[in-house]
Amino acid sequence: MIKIDVTSLSEFQQPVSFYSPGISDRPASVVDHCAHTENHLFAMDYRMIETPDFTIHDITTSGKKALKMEEYTNECIPLSLNCALKGSFACKCAHFGKGKDNIWQESNLNAYSVSSMSGYMVCEAGSEIKQFAISFSEPFSRKLVAMMPNHLERMWERYDNNCNSRLFDCNRECTPEIQSTICQLCRIKTDGECARLLLESKVLELLAFALAPKRENVVACPLSAADREKIMEARNILLQDVCHPPSLSKLAIQAGTNDFKLKHGFRELFDNTVYGILTKQRMNQACNCLHNTSLPVADIALLTGFEHQSSFTKAFQRILGMTPQEYRNNG
């Protein structure tokens, strides 16, 4: 077992923290950072999206050797939501769990309030750990406490008294709704003028799912990280050639999964069916052709995978509420 101090590693191109970097000096808008570091001990991909109210952390760590990663911070973190999306690991945090190791399994989550922290994380050689976290600013945390006092007021009282606390004594499960919302959140483009609003809406949705009462007697079927990767690959394959899409069974085989997981995965990750995603892409391409070219509608129908213009027109009108020609005229 090799022991390293994460806080002082000079190899990092970006300040990296297991819990979260400091929340001071927040940007006025949205800033999206990406960093990669690799050495003989481990490789790490790190993405941090900063806004005035919260910071999103998406971290993937691949251990080349068995590691004990130690860390300490004096930064105050009023509220942080942490999720383990892939891999299992053990960690110990001062002031939590009476000094016992906290075992994080794949698809675990918890919320923390931290005035200072020291601890460590243990990961095995050859393991890949994917973590996701959101740390909130103090003003925004106060708003959240006012909105959800039954959930957060006790944590906030301990934070005001310079005490660390966590929301759940035992880690909760990342439900399919939470995993799907995280995927949607990570796909939001951060360079548009609506980026901050879109990010905040998804962050609040994610927090609402995380704080919802635990459902009893419900059989959960969360997608594993490997399943999510296969569903994303299936989507890429599907959209490579919208004119000649594979059948559901062939698409499942090409992506390394089965029909059930393929259909379930599309619902969970994209809130749509396989056919719905295909049709949406066909309509996007059709709109682009209608807006930017003078091609006849019949040709655009063929280019977007429809054998007959009438079928294309019906599908277009059902989804966009107007015929292709009306869309072009309104362009």
Automatic annotation (TrEMBL):
SMART domains: HTH_ARAC. Keywords: DNA-binding, Transcription, Transcription regulation. GO terms for molecular function: DNA-binding transcription factor activity; sequence-specific DNA binding. InterPro entries: Homeodomain-like_sf (IPR009057), HTH_AraC (IPR018060), HTH_AraC-typ_CS (IPR018062), PchR_regulatory_protein (IPR053142), Tscrpt_reg_AraC-type_HTH (IPR020449). PROSITE patterns: HTH_ARAC_FAMILY_1, HTH_ARAC_FAMILY_2. Residues 232-330 form the HTH araC/xylS-type domain. Transmembrane segments: none annotated. This is Regulatory protein PchR. It comes from termite gut metagenome.
